[in-house]
Amino acid sequence: MADDGMLLNFEFGDAPLKSQVKFKGGRWRDRLKAQRSVKLHQDGPSSTPQDDDASRSAKRPRTEDGGSHRYAKMPRTADSNTKPPSHAMKTGQISSSLFTSNPAAVTDFEQPPVEEAEPAKPSNAPLSDEAENFHSLGLSRRVAQHLATKLEMKAPTAIQKNTVPVLIKEDSDAFLQAETGSGKTLAYLLPIVQRIMALSLNEDGTPKKTRVHRNSGLFAIILAPTRELCKQIAAVLEKLLRCASWLVCTTVIGGESKKSEKARIRKGVNILIATPGRLTDHLDNTEVLNVGTVRWLVLDEGDRMMEMGFEDDLKAIVRKIRVDKLEKENAEGVVLDGVLPSRRVTVLCSATMKMNVQKLGEISLEDAVHITASKSEMEGDADASNEAAFSAPSQLKQACIIAPAKLRLVTLIALLKSTFARKGSVMKAIIFISCADSVDFHYELLKDTKALEPPTPEDSGTQPDRNIHTESTVAPAAYVTSPANPKVMLHRLHGSLTQPVRSATLNAFSTCKDPAVLITTDISSRGLDVPAVDLVIEYDPAFAGADHVHRIGRTARAGRAGKAVLFLLPGSEEGYTSILSTSTPIAPQLYESILQKGLASAVNLPSTPTTAETEKQTWSSRAEALQLHLEQRLLAAASPASAANDDNAEDGGPPSKFNNAKGKPRQQQQKGYPIKPKDNPLLDAGRRAFRSHIRAYATHVREERVYFDITQLHLGHMAKAFGLREPPGGIGGGVARRAHNKGGGGGAGEKKGRMVGSGGANVGSSSSTRRDDGDGDGVGAAVDEDAARRMKQKMRMVMNASSEFNIG
């Protein structure tokens, strides 16, 4: 009883008092989410996230007249409601659910797959007929015995059987067309080596009085679109020339010293492998390069060279070789006619007959014979629109995974983890990604943060020195290891790397004895023959359907088995498989089966200071914990102390000791103002990769944009595939984005969850976009003429004008 007679009766109940939690620092969105989460847990189990979503009012739908560019919230489908619910994390962090608000897949996964009556016979394997051997094709016993004993090749493939006799006996041009991995390289190398050897050897194998050597003249030039393919052709040719040690071959490619190349040409060479740009340079500036004795000009992967913009260079090369007078004997008096072709022979190799290939044929070929792997196709008329005969090998198993954008990253990790779950099942895998920025980001994200241990003095005599060129491109992988394969090596390769780094990385991947993964762009899609590649993953679909065949052709080569997996988004992308030319059906798979198999056990996280837990009971909780862990890695910033010592820190806090250039000291921590930490380099890489990926998505060919419609792409969901909480802005700015963002080009993606539409980023509106087609540096948006010229000048200074492949 109070003094004034008022009775105070306050009842608090049995429940404990609710403590008010205040969050400071960080982004205001994160603070708001954290406060809502605390309030949700304090209110008790009566309020659930599902109830909160149900009571929330719908967003304003998009109007027909285009007055509003807001999009309505994506409808919740029956399939999405049946997905596993979001599990609360014990870390105190907020993780948006991966299994809600996802678009429903159109494909019917309930239908059982069609089982084959018997396994398909390999379509690119060597012939099994005992009567078929290399000697029966017209090759000398010396060459045939060398192939059988040294190279372990006893029987030819179908394309080699049809090509070698024609090029040995006849002097006409030829157009070779066969599927990937069928042996086209040896199909044109064997006749060239056989006829050059005939200048020094008689039919019975005895040497002639006059034997040609490296100074006897240049007899053949082989052109390839990429440096990696040139080096691979040279490696095959060097093995073949071991039976004729007096013949010499060499390469002239971009990225290497032209002075050393001129020295090798001056010393003498019989067969030259080159890229078009560098060969054009030598034809104009290298006087010792004499093409008067050249009898063969081989254009390997002709369609790729035309796509990469080498048409002018190819015209100049063909014109330069044809204008010079054909020498009937060399400087030493050796008669060339009668043994070598009496005219210059051009051989064009391509897996398809596109319009650009036909145009290249008109430039280079004269009365050419069409040679394929099948006799019936050679006798009949070639149908330019029929590419079914030149599809993937029949023994290659193909599948496509329908995964929503939010689940792409965890599904990829689960697929790799299940792939290397058994010892010896898969030795090497290749992941194709659209752009170089995305390759760099996924490499940094998936590699183990623990540095390689330096070799001890005891191991210095037994282990070779570590290659300095692969220190930034080869590292142990995290997340995908297993008790059966505790060590998986991760590699990255794209056109922005220097030539020594590219060569060393490709060699490390080819010779790696441990299970290995190569993350690469389309630079590795043509002609590369890496042994023991059992799996090809197209994480980003190819920019054109024809490139799909070349990508998956890196596996199932020369009759070996292989598997290819294609990632697609639910919706319009699912129809993409209907236009692919395949000899085997593409089996659709839902992401749930991949997650269940790959996340059946805990994921081995790298040694990073994160608090995510993967020791969960269900695969869905492990998937959410893995996604949270990846997002935490990107959000982990540098310490404030390191930011305080950086004089070039960004705005938002006193980053250094001095206030300005005059040297006046700052008052650190004045009025409690914190020092802004530096951004995580991994976060910056993720933002760059996201922007480049969206720009690359807009560069699909016109005929396929009905399947890859950028207006249907959800930026908020796609951001989670790069470990980002929200999509970064500036997508339409490109490499030369202006500060004030004139024209509204960078307005898309600034709000989380916004889809790319008519009011979003100006992505793909111009044709002047760039891709990593072979030796470029990724994907860029359209820029004006002045900005493009300045960027070219800057790239020229950086690369020392050494690469003719830096197009765009």
From TrEMBL:
GO annotation (BP), single: rRNA processing
Cellular location(s): Nucleus, Nucleolus
Segments of skewed composition (Polar residues): 459-470
GO molecular function list: ATP binding; hydrolase activity; RNA binding; RNA helicase activity
Limits of the Helicase C-terminal domain: 408-607
Origin superkingdom: Eukaryota
Catalytic activity: ATP + H2O = ADP + phosphate + H(+)
Keywords (A to Z) from UniProt: ATP-binding, Helicase, Hydrolase, Nucleotide-binding, Nucleus, Ribosome biogenesis, RNA-binding, rRNA processing
Stored SUPFAM superfamilies: P-loop containing nucleoside triphosphate hydrolases
Biased composition (Basic and acidic residues): 53-68
Renumbered residue ranges of the record's region Disordered: 23-91, 451-470, 638-683, 737-781
Entries under InterPro entries matching the protein: DEAD/DEAH_box_helicase_dom, Helicase_ATP-bd, Helicase_C-like, P-loop_NTPase, SPB4-like_CTE
GO cellular component: a single term: nucleolus
EC number: 3.6.4.13
Keyword Oxidoreductase tagged: no
Domain Helicase ATP-binding: 165-371
Domain notes: The Q motif is unique to and characteristic of the DEAD box family of RNA helicases and controls ATP binding and hydrolysis.
Family: Belongs to the DEAD box helicase family.
Annotated function: RNA helicase.
Protein name: ATP-dependent RNA helicase
Source species of the chain: Chaetomidium leptoderma
